[in-house]
Amino acid sequence: MSMESTCGAHRILGEIVAALEAAGVSRLDALVDLRAGGSLRSVFAVSDLAQASVAAAGVALARFAAVCRGREAGAVVVDRDLASAWFQVSIRPVGWELPPPWDPVAGDYRGADGWVRLHTNAAHHRQAALAVLGAPVDRSAVASAVSGWKVDALEDAVVKAGGAAAAMRSLVDWSEHPQGRAVAAEPLLAFEPGSPAAAAVRAGPVGSPDAGPLSGMRVLDLTRVLAGPAATRTLAGWGADVLRIDPPGWDEAAVVPEMTLGKRCARLDLSTPGRVRFLELLAGADVLVHGYRSDALEHLGLEWEARDQYRRGLIDVSLDAYGWSGPWATRRGFDSLVQMSCGIADAGRRAESVETPTPLPVQALDHATGWILAAAVITGLTVRTTHGVGSRWRGSLARTAQLLIEADPDPVDGTSARPIKVPEPLPELEHTERGPARRLAPPVEVAGAPLRWTRPARALGSDPPAW
Domains (ranges, CATH) in the chain? Predict the structure, then answer.
């Protein structure tokens, strides 16, 4: 192993592990082998972040398995190239193609005094942006309309209309912005203990000795693209029973083949007729992972205290875009928007000496947050097994961005590093509902606990809302 090419990943891993250990678990000791490899082309340490966040989930899993089995934690090995590749896309369709990732309107536009990004993949977000601009679904017309706006004013107007947008700011601007200051003061993972676990709550793996270490654990998944689904996909790969719940009519076609791997997918309206069924599902869950805006469940009368009391011993893990404090705590957002807001896209532009925003080569904030949240879930299971209590965990894309920025707070042209070598996918065919496909090998190996999925990717709403 070349420490020279992985020392940055070791530093980031140390910060993530420290955040997990704040929950009061014993030291997360495991032999970690971060295999050397290439780097994704970026002025930020994206491949370090990828390798470290994947390793954090592996370390947490090794610790949980050791507690349940009464022995030392197994070794954790993370392939740097594979970790970086999983931050791109893990599926390789055979005889078909993935849908385009963006709708025709989404993207960066030049305003009167800078750049702004519109996120319009969801129909209601597109409608909000077009209504503010008074433009049709036509990229040229949208560009013309945006050109007359100051970008901060357009960002505010679109957000107030129920849309999603972000003006491009510099790293310095973000550090001085009220929301930037609020995020910088937050922990990478906020933790608080929950209620004592009921006797019926499973304490550790059940099932056959060959089952995954999370076998028997029920995970209720209320997440959307991409961070939350990445977290629950990881849990499914280690044996958890993951039931994803989407509202009627919702789709995210471009990422379904990537993100529903290993899961069952059902639909429920949580606000009216589906509420009773949701509470029944929650009563049988070990873990709830949700990625709604920070006040969304509260508006449905499902605040943290109610969830905790309804399912005693629950591991409740949530994420949002812009953090849990500050003026933007309830603002909707996505990886690409957070990169604009927090200075990443501007730093890339400056380093490349170009006019246009230059974001990370992958949606690294989403993927890294997903692996970190998977580590939080598993650590929560360890806390419940050792201390008999549930727990609440919170993370955000903006705080993960802060982790990346602090790993290289003064980015320079770091784009000459050796590129990653993307391995060939595994030979086995995965029979998704779109067609046959192959997957990359898992990016992490935990001794005695292979990461493997028994269900192929499936369409949203394919299953009944039942355990």
Answer: 3-98+182-324+360-446 (3.40.50.10540)
